[in-house]
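One such shown below:
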Amino acid sequence: MLSIISKILAFGRGEKRTSSEEFEAAVNAALLSDTVHDVATGRPYVSEEGALNLSAVWACVRILSETVWTLPIHLYRRTSAGREQVREHPCSFILSRPNAYTSRFALLHHLMVSCTLWGNGYARIWRDERFRPVRLQLLHPTQVEPVLSTDDELYYRTDRGELLPSYDMLPAIGSSIGYTYFGNIKMNGYADAGGGTMVPYSEEFREGMGTAMLSISIPVFHWGEGRKKVRKARYELENAQLELEKNRKLLSLEAEQAANNLEESVFMIETAIAGVKHADENLRVTRNRYGAAMATLTELLDSQSQWQQAKSNLIEAKTQYKIYEAQYLRATGALE
């Protein structure tokens, strides 16, 4: 790239001046000298790190990052009237020393460089068992992926597969650039020309003022977030316990009902067996009477029909017993 840029800037010194087409080709070659091949489109593109090879991009990122890390960090507490600055708070130490190997300057520098090149910077908030923040861990933007849940809740997925809620990740960075033009402002008056002579004069203003602002909102501490989280977990546990108790009662009721059905089916089998015995005896007697010409054929057919019905009742009672037995085993958890 240096050879390409030297050719672009080589004016004079007896060297040949480049034409506009050669200049454009050299600039394009410099831009594409450190590119990444996009598999999807098949075309090269300038990566975030590769953009730093351009002097203009490198200078802008350097000025912004080095300017931001010199700014002070203030901790604020939300109040009913708005906010107030907090000086004595554990989070103040975290902001001044994010972790054992990172300084405040490194934190701001990392966030600003990530913001300018990738659009946002990330740092994970580690908390203790009481939900209090204890340290910050800087994350490369390529290690974090914002994810929206089905109920539009924001989460962050890390390269390790962890899914973090939004309150465990910082920051929210915003910037604004503006320009205000002061034109067509005229001032008329009199000036002392000397000797007590006043002469009229007029002056017109045609100026502008540019502004650039950057805000970094770091949600290091959420007032009441821990209590809300614990309260939510307690409610979920209570609901789970109530649901478990309801299911336990339903299972107990189902097992009791299955046991009653099983006992009733045993009684129905005994009744059906007694009915078969009675039908057998009735058919035997009717056949003897029919052989002695003491009963009609209609009476014999009725006896045979009653015997067949008794046999069918016994078969149905045994079948229903097997069904109730399977239901009882399932309700008591003994069914394999």
Notes: The chain is about 45% helix and 25% strand.
